[in-house]
Amino acid sequence: MSNAGLTIFDGALLRSIDLNLPELEHGVTGAQLLEISESKVSESLSGLSLPPHIKEAAISRVSAGDDVSFRRAELNREQASEKLGVFVSAVADALTDTPVVVSILDGSTLKLILEDEDDFAMLAENLFTDLDEEDKGKLPKSQIRKALSLMGAEMGVPPLSDFPILDNIIKKHDADGDEELGQAQFAELLQPILQEIADVLHEKPITIVQNVEIFNGSKLRKILADEKTLKCLVEKMVKDNQGRADLIKNLMIENGKELGLPPLSSENESVALLYETIQSQLNKRDKETSDASTEEEFMDALKDILGRFAELLESTPVYSATTL
């Protein structure tokens, strides 16, 4: 799936890939087959180089965990074809679980923002407000870096790791240091920096590859249906003198990934709202969960809270992108 310089690979393309091998006079080694497999998959994904973790997972499945021996093994055509299918399926499964987003940043998104005065003014105001956590009405110049990070690839600004010249651009515009700026001054400093970033990207676009985690409640539903797994998570969290409601809160925070919950530290506003909603429900049930006299009563209360979280994620899925 693609849209204006952004392509999402979720594994669907690989489900119908041609698994025919090129004509082989003789058999192939495992090492040669892995090269052929990676090339076929990359070709089907518009030339995308496989992210290391996906490539490693596919190799592990093909080799049954013995990479060294597999690379040395001699495979006939039938064996090679079978292993090719295993490799492709492994990559497709990985992309289905965690899709990859490929963004081509060429400055066009930033230029559109800068060309519309109202859009830029709103962007600068929102960034300033988000960064002015103490509501002082002032921010140090150094917060320009964080503002660019908040914009991210979604708004056309590449991360410093993929765009080292960004550091030079910031220094060129004297956007470092502790000198404090008001909102208007902050916007005046931000504008030429964004303009130069757009110009540099226009001359030399860069490609950003990101993992996308989708939190839609499906993993949480599976956990809720598996009481044994849920009890194991609870047992890991049990501490002396810890109230039942506190236990539920800590369970969600410390075992969120295992439960399929978006990270609480996420800067996504919808995530913060989800946790606020659940926190409010926990506060209302605080006495009930604290007074639950039996394990069964506590598990019922826990399932109810997590079930509500799953409903919220189903109705409003959360997406979290991580640059590879």
Automatic annotation (TrEMBL):
GO terms for molecular function: calcium ion binding. SUPFAM superfamilies: EF-hand. Residues 161-196 form the EF-hand domain. InterPro entries: EF-hand-dom_pair, EF_hand_dom. It comes from the Eukaryota. PANTHER family: CALCIUM-BINDING EF HAND FAMILY PROTEIN, CALCIUM-BINDING EF-HAND FAMILY PROTEIN-RELATED. This is EF-hand domain-containing protein. The lineage of its organism: Eukaryota, Viridiplantae, Streptophyta, Embryophyta, Tracheophyta.
